Amino acid sequence: MASPIVDAHLDLASNVLGGRDYRLEIDEIRSAEHRTSEECTVSLPELRRAHVAIAFATIMVMPERWDATGVPIYQAPPSIDARAQIAVYESWQRDGLARIIRSRADLDVHLGLWARDDVLGLVLLMEGADPIDQPADLPEWWRAGIRIIGPAWSMTRYAGGTDRPGGLTSAGRDLVAQMAEIGIAMDLSHMADAAFGESLDVGTHAVLASHSNARSLVPTDRQLSDEMIVAIGSRGGVIGLNLYNEFIHPRWHHEGERPAVGLDDLRPHAEHIAGLIGWERVGIGSDLDGGLGLEETPVEIGTVADIEKICTIIPEAACVGVLGNNWIEWLRRVLPA
């Protein structure tokens, strides 16, 4: 039996609402979309082929724009889009294509069944907390299945984020405190430096960085500083290696210079993070199809089924953990009974 793979960051439902049908084979999706960029690398059949047992499946609502002060502006209340994305995952569960994991009991049942049927398990992760109208609404989102929240993407009503520095707002402090009380884990990817530190000061139930690499190698605020890495590891968190070339190679840019990037370029990130907090705190958070596509991932990654090739850049003894078991052990610690 193949060891379970866990991918801690896949933007699936938002792409479905954008018109992508992940029930199809990848070749069918690519043929239907006729894209010259952001070419698909993920599908439900391909995830099964890849032996991905669990994905942290995001609920992610993009703003239409930001105003002059950096406040996000949405076409419609983001809670509407977020609920529609949850409905996508629920429809997959009804159709036997996925199982939503809400508890340790669900996790154990799923892993037992997965060993026989390869059906994907989903842990729901809200990326950017703007769909939560107010912190008092958190119990409603918990009941809907959300078990992880990243308060920021760029700036949100709750926190500073990527490219838009700032700390927690007053509502953000309330949100973080209530997340800890309810038992919702905090995804620190995308958090601005000030918001990162203030969140830890307020207190958390559990932490992770679902899809981030090392700032010492790619010096932007989207990546984790050494101090951030140590803070996550010391709290029992896991960091998911991101497969976006721009987050792997310091000279690769979405528009402009694009040197060839391979998994060997990801190796220094993995080794740096593991050197600070240990291989048991390293996992995968590929971000495949998350606003990027085939041409923006390492040359060895043609589809998500190639994700196991990450084992070529990490010590053999750490491979099973990095591919999935480190995330599974983290889930056992942080999910409710």
Task: Write a structural description.
The protein is α/β, with parallel strands linked by helices and about 325 residues long. It has a single domain (about 5-335), classed as Metal-dependent hydrolases (TIM Barrel), CATH 3.20.20.140. Helices cover about 35% and strands about 15% of the residues. The chain has helices at about 15, 25-35, 45-50, 80-95, 105-115, 140-145, 170-180, 195-200, 225-235, 245-250, 265-275, 320-335, and strands spanning about 5-10, 50-60, 65, 70-75, 100, 120-125, 145-150, 160, 165-170, 185, 205-210, 240, 280-285. Strands 1, 2, 5, 6, 7, 10 and 11 form a 7-stranded parallel β-sheet that branches. It has a two-stranded antiparallel sheet with strand order 3-4. The longest helix is centred in the first third of the chain and has 17 residues, at about 80-95. The chain starts with a strand and ends with a helix.
In short:
The protein is of the alpha/beta class. It is built from twelve helices and 13 strands.
Topology record:
Elements: E1 5-10, H1 13-17, H2 26-33, H3 44-49, E2 52-59, E3 65-66, E4 72-73, H4 78-94, E5 98-100, H5 104-117, E6 120-127, H6 138-143, E7 146-150, E8 159-161, E9 164-168, H7 170-182, E10 185-187, H8 193-202, E11 207-208, H9 226-234, E12 239-241, H10 245-248, H11 263-277, E13 282-284, H12 319-334
Parallel strand pairs: 1-2, 2-6, 5-6, 6-7, 7-10, 10-11, 12-13
Antiparallel strand pairs: 3-4, 8-9
